[in-house]
Amino acid sequence: MTIRYEANPPKILPEVDINISITKFVEKIKTISKNCDAIHLTENVLGFQRVSPITVGKIIKREIPDKPITVSLRVRDKTEEEILEFVDNCIAIGISGVLILMGDPSQTGKQDSGQVPSSVVTKLKEQKIDSKIDLYLSISNNPDFSKINKKLKANPKGFMTQVVHNIEQVRNLSENLNNFSIIPIVLFPSEKNEKSAKFLNLKLESYREKFEELVNQIQEITGDILLTSPNDFNGLNDFLKKNSQSTKY
């Protein structure tokens, strides 16, 4: 069973020393990695320019070499050459998997490249790159399975979901995609994450009191889960620390 922690690399801001931001970020990852099984690094969430997951991933692999790392790769504003370079760099530094997704529109005005995630996976597999690194696609928490043929045909290692709202969504995904690895994403239900919950149209009170139970149920179904807590690092770390010695994990 695997519990992953989703981390957003530091934003690149003119008034902030980026080296200091990276150092603080890596220290946080080293702290929480003691209580989880793997790390997932995002790329330019909501289109804001952030430090590359490859840059911080390389440092993290050096600091905690035995901790598996997956990263997000947004293809919306990358060429085929840039995509291949990104994946080659991931392989070179020991990243275990890449989540290939469209990504949010760039906040810097960079134009779309026309790349489509499922097609990118297909092209990478044609080059046998999936023998060197796991390739994942994203999927809705409540998809119309009759309309995801392109994603299924691309045949990724598995799917990372949108933030799930309940265990029924996880069961539905697992039952209909039983030939693939499923990694449900769950938002840590703390008050500090309420803003994120509203953005996702998610009611945290629906599982706040039974969060540990939800995590255990998802683990039983998929054997894998990605926990995200964009505004409450300490809260999630405390939860993981409290439960890290449990045989449930």
Beta-strand fraction estimate: 15-25%
Span of the ends, CA to CA: 7 Å
* Biggest beta sheet summary: 8 strands, parallel, barrel
Major β-sheet strand ordering: 1-2-3-4-5-6-7-8
Helix content: 25-40%
How does the overall form come out from the CA principal axes?
Answer: globular
Q: Class, according to the CATH hierarchy?
A: Alpha Beta
Could you say what the CATH topology is called?
TIM Barrel
Give me the CATH architecture, please.
Alpha-Beta Barrel
Q: How confident is the prediction overall: mean pLDDT?
A: 93
Overall structural class, as computed from helix and strand content, comes to alpha/beta
Show unreliable segments: none
How many independent structural domains?
A: 1
Strand element count: 8
Rg from alpha-carbon coordinates: 17 Å
Instruction: Give the count of helical stretches.
Output: 9
Could you give the order of the helices and strands? Answer: EHEHEHEHEHEHEHHEH
Kindly describe this structure.
There is one protein chain. The protein is α/β, with parallel strands linked by helices. It has one domain (2-182): TIM Barrel, CATH 3.20.20.220. Helices cover 38% and strands 18% of the residues. The chain contains nine helices and eight strands. Strands 1-2-3-4-5-6-7-8 form an eight-stranded parallel β-barrel, surrounded by five helices. Strand 4, helix 4 and strand 5 (134-139) form a beta-alpha-beta unit. Helix 6 (167-176) packs parallel to helix 8 (211-222).
